[in-house]
């Protein structure tokens, strides 16, 4: 990439959550292979991010490459209205088999946010079909469910998104985020607010929606499995649907194939995305039970009211089939467990560091929460000069490497993160 390309990028191209007027620096990546990204100047960076939870097998994986190449020879895309194709059927078979029991009807869409929109619409159509006026969702604070309007409306209300779009977003109900940590002793009062809300007179919500066990972009918090178990019990008792947003947690990241398994529960609706295609192409899935699917289909509309243009895109389905086949080989639990151990050994001692408010690890996720916000440009520059790709946000520096990361590569990520804490210029005073 030339200097001119970079200048064009700065002037004309939006990046995630950035100003186009005063953008932070962007690093040109021209290739990615295994667990490394390659910069335009030839430098290689060990990947600590899996491209935001997605690239679980690393980059340029021969098996996924081959699956996409074969699919490309057959067809890259075909509409899904009135047509089906082998890649979609194989993928949905897999998803039905690997997700918890009652989930057996699959809706494929383009991205995580859309999967959340689909889940919300399913819940709304479900109650409409049952003749009940339920339009409100109930969720916990500090959640993150995506950037489209329905998804935004159930994200943490303190973030600027709600303020910015006030009057436009639907109003939903929030209770406090779970405070009992994953490894804490369970405290029953943690669920009291949610329990009281559902036990109160007045209209019930259409659904409770939350991220199981790990609240991701809303703060990288790991909460107690009993919280999730209680949510399931309460939803059953009060006849409220439960939507589990497993878009970040699905496919092994937390040490279980799905985070719901930590609590031994199944949701009524589950959203999947991110790692679904091994990080190759955008694709998401919303799964639900036969009961919800039938009820929705027997309502006034006689169908579920959604149908994206690129629904079940064959290339994306082929990538997903190849990625799930790699998971089915069964190496991931040992890989994630080894990453977890190395992250614990490396990051938990940082709790004693003066810059650090907390350090926590679950599965292949390691989080260092600092006292003050990071100076993103300075910190990112430091990481790149040290040969690693780590992208912090706010007060969170976190690692979620590909499952294929090698011990010495993970060691470099950890020692570099550790060293970064000693430079005051990396933090906003
Ligand atoms: C990333 C994410 C989404 C949104 O997915 P996109 O593909 O970015 O639209 C939704 N929910 C959770 C929990 C996520 O982590």
What's the topology here?
Blueprint: H1 3-12, E1 29-33, E2 36-39, E3 44-47, H2 50-53, H3 62-74, H4 86-98, E4 103-109, H5 112-129, E5 137-140, H6 149-152, H7 160-164, E6 173-175, H8 192-199, E7 207-210, E8 214-215, E9 221-222, H9 225-237, E10 241-245, E11 269-272, E12 284-289, H10 290-297, H11 314-328, H12 332-347, E13 356-362, E14 365-370, H13 376-385, E15 388-389, E16 396-399, H14 407-420
Parallel strand pairs: 3-15, 5-6, 5-7, 7-10, 10-11
Antiparallel strand pairs: 1-2, 2-3, 4-12, 8-9, 11-12, 13-14, 14-16
Helix pairs in contact: 3-11, 4-11, 5-10, 12-14
The protein binds pyridoxal-5'-phosphate.
Name the features.
4-stranded mixed beta sheet, Aspartate Aminotransferase, domain 1, 16% strand, 16 strands, single chain, 14 helices, 429 residues, binds pyridoxal-5'-phosphate, Aspartate Aminotransferase, domain 2, 7-stranded mixed beta sheet, alpha/beta
From the 3D structure, determine the CATH topology of the largest domain: Aspartate Aminotransferase, domain 2
Radius of gyration equals 22 Å
- Bin the strand percentage: 15-25%
Question: What is the overall shape?
Answer: globular
Task: Provide the domain count.
Answer: 2
CATH class of the largest domain: Alpha Beta
Biggest sheet record: 7 strands, mixed
Output the CATH homologous superfamily of the largest domain: Type I PLP-dependent aspartate aminotransferase-like (Major domain)
What is the rounded distance between the termini? 35 Å
Structural class: alpha/beta
């Amino acid at each position: 990439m030339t200097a001119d390309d970079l200048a064009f990028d700065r002037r004309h191209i939006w990046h995630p959550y950035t100003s186009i007027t005063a953008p932070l620096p962007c690093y040109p990546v021209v290739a990615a292979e295994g667990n490394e990204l390659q910069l335009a100047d030839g430098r290689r960076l060990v990947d600590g991010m899996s491209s935001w939870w997605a690239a679980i097998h690393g980059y340029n994986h021969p098996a996924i490459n081959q699956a996409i190449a074969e699919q490309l020879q057959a067809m890259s895309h075909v509409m899904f209205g009135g047509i089906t194709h082998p890649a979609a059927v194989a993928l949905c078979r897999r998803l039905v088999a690997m997700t918890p029991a009652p989930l057996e009807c699959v809706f494929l869409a383009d991205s995580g946010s859309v999967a959340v929109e689909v889940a919300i619409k399913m819940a709304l159509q479900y109650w409409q079909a049952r003749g009940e006026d339920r339009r409100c969702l109930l969720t916990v604070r500090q959640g993150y469910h995506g950037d489209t309007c329905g998804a935004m409306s159930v994200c943490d209300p303190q973030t600027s998104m709600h303020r910015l779009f006030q009057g436009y977003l639907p109003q939903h109900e929030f209770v406090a985020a779970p405070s009992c940590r994953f490894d804490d002793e369970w405290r029953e009062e943690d669920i009291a607010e949610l329990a009281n809300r559902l036990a109160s007179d007045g209209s019930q919500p259409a659904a409770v929606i939350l991220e199981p066990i790990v609240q991701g972009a809303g703060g990288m918090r790991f909460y107690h499995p009993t919280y999730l178990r209680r949510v399931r019990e309460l939803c059953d008792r009060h006849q409220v649907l439960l939507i589990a947003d497993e878009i970040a947690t699905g496919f092994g990241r937390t040490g279980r194939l799905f985070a719901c398994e930590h609590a031994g529960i199944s949701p009524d609706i589950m959203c999947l995305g991110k790692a679904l295609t091994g990080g190759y192409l955008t694709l998401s899935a919303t799964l639900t039970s036969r009961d919800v699917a039938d009820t929705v289909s027997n309502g006034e509309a006689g169908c579920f009211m959604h149908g994206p243009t690129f629904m079940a895109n064959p290339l994306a389905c082929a990538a997903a089939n190849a990625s799930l086949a790699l998971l089915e080989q069964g190496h991931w639990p040992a890989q994630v467990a080894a990453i977890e151990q190395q992250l614990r050994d490396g990051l938990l001692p940082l709790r004693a560091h003066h810059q650090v408010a907390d350090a926590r690890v679950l599965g292949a996720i390691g989080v260092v929460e600092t006292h003050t916000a990071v100076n993103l440009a300075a910190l990112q520059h430091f990481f790149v000069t040290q040969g690693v790709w780590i992208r912090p946000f706010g007060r969170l520096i976190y690692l979620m490497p590909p499952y294929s990361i090698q011990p010495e590569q993970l060691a470099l990520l950890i020692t570099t993160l550790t060293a970064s804490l000693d430079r005051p210029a990396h933090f906003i005073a």
